[in-house]
Amino acid sequence: MKELRVGMIGYGFMGRTHSNAYKRLTDFFPVEHKPVLKAVCARNAEKAKAFADNWGYERIETDWRKVVEAPDIDLIDIGSPNDTHFDIALAAARNGKMVVCEKPLAMNVAQAEEMTKAVEAAGVPNMVWFNYRRVPAIALAKQLVDEGRVGQAFHYRATYLQDWTISADVPQGGAGLWRLDVDVAGSGVTGDLLAHSIDTAMWLNGAIVRVVAKTKTFVTERVHAVTGKVQPVGIDDACMFLAEFANGSMGTFESTRYARGRKNFNTFEMNGADGSLYFDLEEPEYLQYFEYKQLQSGKKLESHVTGWRKIHTTNSEHPYMNRYWVPGTCIGYEHTFLNALADFVMGIESGKPTQPDFRNALQTQKVCDAVIESANSGRWMDTGVTL
């Protein structure tokens, strides 16, 4: 079995989810490459050492440049804050490393375009961890759309709601709360949460070509965790936008961190001429499907048993599920990263690039930037997306 030698940048939440995937890959998927956890990099050596000891990394570094230049590393995994993605990705590409990066790809479209050019010029395999594509129920939704079971699309609506920043006492910045610091995060819920919703929407329903948006910052000043000073808050706490898709359908998107009681409420509904789909991440093992017309002998015929079906996506014929347990038993959040990694490694082995790669994630970045620009200007904005 060939080695896939991994250098992990970052040891936080995403570092854990990715490390778990590397450790379990060959337990579940018959690939030719076995990940080897070579190095983890973080600014805090003590915490990096504890992370390395727990997950089995061979060494630690506090300078990411040493990781991307190391001859014993094949793949650079960027799980660090958003403002670090650009420099690390460019350096990794220059050193001929495969690159996988957390979302959003970059701080803005200009960075994302340069990162995309760099990995393509270097010819290195690359992927962005939009892991929700690998939820079996969402992958099944994609299958149903591709099979023509939804038909002409009319509406797409998505929500992504959380509640963890409501208190004005929550600081901004630092290792744990960098997502509230605009200089590190780039944006608030738009890049952190809606990037997922946008990626899923365009995967299922095609390009988003125009948007008009409104954002809101409810707590306008917070203590900075590093400086201890009260500073203005530059990120968006909430965002809502309308969208036009290239196929003529209409979209509504809403995200907030001020929805009391919602922890990670991520939903979408798609309505078409022949059927509808609905998904809720808080019940990830289910996909709801309304069938108006059935495929019979190659023809779409009106059904006499129309109604919503709640499909329990745990059968072996459902996406990814033949690698896990018996029907009726569920997989978890961590398996979405495992599924994504498996697709990436199989892409390396087959020579067929895995999606979403940097160029695909660039399109999501274009929508995110257009949303922020529209919110600032109050006007409809073209996204420039090309899928």
Question: What do these coordinates show?
Answer:
The chain is built from 10 helices and 19 strands. It has 2 domains: 2-131, NAD(P)-binding Rossmann-like Domain (Rossmann fold, 3-Layer(aba) Sandwich); 132-382, Dihydrodipicolinate Reductase, domain 2, CATH 3.30.360. The longest helix is centred in the last third of the chain and has 20 residues, at 358-377. A hairpin with a 6-residue loop joins strand 9 and strand 10 (230-232). The relative contact order is 0.16. It is α/β, with parallel strands linked by helices. The model has no long low-confidence stretch (mean pLDDT 96). Helices cover 33% and strands 27% of the residues. It has helices spanning 13-28, 45-55, 64-69, 85-94, 109-122, 136-146, 182-185, 189-205, 333-350, 358-377; strands at residues 2-9, 33-41, 59-61, 75-78, 98-101, 126-128, 153-161, 208-216, 221-223, 230-232, 238-245, 250-256, 265-272, 275-280, 286-291, 293-296, 299-302, 308-312, 381-382. The strands form 4 sheets. A 9-stranded mixed sheet has the order 18-15-14-13-7-12-11-8-19.
Q: What's the layout of helices and strands?
A:
Elements: E1 2-9, H1 13-28, E2 33-41, H2 45-55, E3 59-61, H3 64-69, E4 75-78, H4 85-94, E5 98-101, H5 109-122, E6 126-128, H6 136-146, E7 153-161, H7 182-185, H8 189-205, E8 208-216, E9 221-223, E10 230-232, E11 238-245, E12 250-256, E13 265-272, E14 275-280, E15 286-291, E16 293-296, E17 299-302, E18 308-312, H9 333-350, H10 358-377, E19 381-382
Parallel strand pairs: 1-2, 1-4, 2-3, 4-5, 5-6, 7-12
Antiparallel strand pairs: 7-13, 8-11, 8-19, 9-10, 11-12, 13-14, 14-15, 15-18, 16-17
Helix pairs in contact: 1-9, 4-5, 5-10, 6-8, 8-10
